[in-house]
Amino acid sequence: MNVKLKMMFSILTVFLLVFSMACGSTTTSTEQGQSDTESDESTNAEETPSETSEQSESAAEESEEKGVIKIGVLASLTGPLEVYGNQTLRGLEMGFDYATNGTGEVAGKKIEIVYEDTETKPDIAVQKATRLLEDEGVDIIVGSTSSGDTLAVLPIMEEYEKVMIVEPAVADSITGANWNKYIFRTARNSSQDAVTAAQAIAGDVSEGVKVATLAPDYAFGHDGVSAFKTAAESLGAEVILEEYADPTAVDFTSNIQRILDADPDYLFIVWAGANTPFNQIADMKVQESGIQISTGVPDIGALYGLESIIGMKGFAVYHHSLPSNEVNDWLVEEHQKRFDGEYPDLFTPGGMSAAIAIVEALEKTNGDTNGDVLVETLEGMSFETPKGTMTFRAEDHQAMQTMYSVSLEKVDGYDYPVPVLIKELSPEDTAPPIKN
Asked: Is 54 a domain residue?
């Protein structure tokens, strides 16, 4: 295989990650930085739909009378995705501070945030979403970390006619086959990652390149591989093996061995969570066997484990050093002030973007939280974020957004490999196909 082909193809990368938050079996209600914890209550299975709907309306009316807008947050607060939740939680709260100039109010109403742990279990996600809507009377839901959790909740949002801002779940089907009009997404989707990769390698790619993929065995992994496969095959590559691993596994030996046996030219990895396969890939000498690894740029904690693939060309969803705009400047500076010098991480800007979108929409509606009114307001709405201008595409409510073509390098001042900008790809460059 020629050198140009190898260099170009390694840009096809997706390291798709997702979202979580802050407590186990408890619910935390936060009113702009102040929190209290209350006991979790399960939904009464004997209530009829009309009774639960009336309860939801009653709770919402009570909040309205008190001049409060309630935002419900669904997240994996425990388990391997927990780190992403902390990032998104910080971004969401900072986003409300930024968008309201520190008042925590919009249209004269106080913003209150209520958090629920989905435990990365779709059935629990459904229970918690129902609780937020019925017992808490939330006006809008943000979430969730897991694509599986998010997909399970989508029909509930349509039933209750309430808007959900999806952040940071990435499965294409969320704004595709399973979409309904109450669903908007500030997170990028799997196809945007794949389209970014295809844009990055646009050029003369010859046929016959053999690729294997490794991904977690749930919606996030399957959608990521599907989107990548479409982009790769359009360039003449052949995906010879799709290897899916248990997302809770700690031993990937059998998965990696099957990849070695298939003898591809490239291994494309889609992964999320703390228990990544990279250490075992290094231990089993995958690269030394002649297989070139391709993956996206993860969060800072995971970047420490990518020393072995320095020089890789790929893309990034976010690194604090990549965007150049006033919103990102505020986020970086303020995050360091609040969190002992720490930089915002991979999903911090996503949480901030969701909050900004909510506040701007509520300003336009003068605080009206009616689902249909918000849908009309959000459709086609553009707003400024740490990644630049985002726009909710009217057809599927997917946020068009900037992505980054990068190389992974050692940089002075950092003790981990850093994504260095090659090219900023515009929202138009990375617009995914409409699939709903």
From this structure: yes
Residues 180 and 210 sit within 8 Å (Cβ to Cβ):
no
Instruction: Give the pTM.
Output: 0.80
Same domain, 63 and 47: yes
Whether 421 and 411 have beta carbons less than 8 Å apart is answered as no
Do 104 and 235 share a domain, yes or no? no
Query: E strands, 317-402, where?
Result: 382-385, 388-392, 399-400
Burial 105-137 (b: 16+ CB within 10 A, else e): bbeebbbbbbbbbbbbbbebbbbbbbbbbbbbb
Q: Are residues 147 and 288 in the same domain?
A: no
Residues 148 and 283 in one domain: no
Residues 220 and 89 in one domain: no
Residue among 161, 74, 155 nearest 376 (CA)? 161
Do 136 and 272 fall into the same domain? no
Domain ranges, residue 93? 26-188+324-400
CATH number for the domain spanning 332: value is 3.40.50.2300
Check whether residue 316 and residue 337 sit in a common domain: no
Total domain count for the chain?
Answer: 2
pLDDT tens string 381-428: 999 999 999 999 999 999 999 999 888 899 999 999 999 998 899 999
The residue whose two tokens read 């595409």 is 393
N-terminal to C-terminal alpha carbon distance within the chain: 38
Residues linked to residue 165 through DSSP beta bridges, in sequence order: 142, 184
Residue with tokens 């009570």: 62
Which tokens sit at 91? 């971004």
Break the chain down into helix, strand, coil percent, rounded to 5. Answer: 40, 20, 40
Could you tell me if 239 and 128 lie in one domain? no
Which residues face 384 on adjacent strands?
A: 389
What pLDDT does 54 receive? 56
Helix (H, G, I), strand (E, B) or coil at 325: coil
| Tens digit of each residue's pLDDT (9 = 90 or more) over 302-316 | 899 888 888 777 789
pLDDT one-digit tens code per residue, 155-209: 999 999 999 999 999 999 999 999 999 999 999 998 898 877 666 554 434 567 8
User: Does residue 312 contact residue 278 with C-beta atoms inside 8 Å?
Assistant: no
Helix (H) or strand (E) run with residue 145 in it: none
400 forms bridges with which residues in the sheet? 391
Measured torsion, CA atoms of residues 29, 34, 39, 40, in degrees rounded to the nearest 10: 30
Quote the DSSP letter at residue 180.
-
For residues 142 and 154, what is the distance between their CA atoms, to the nearest angstrom? 12
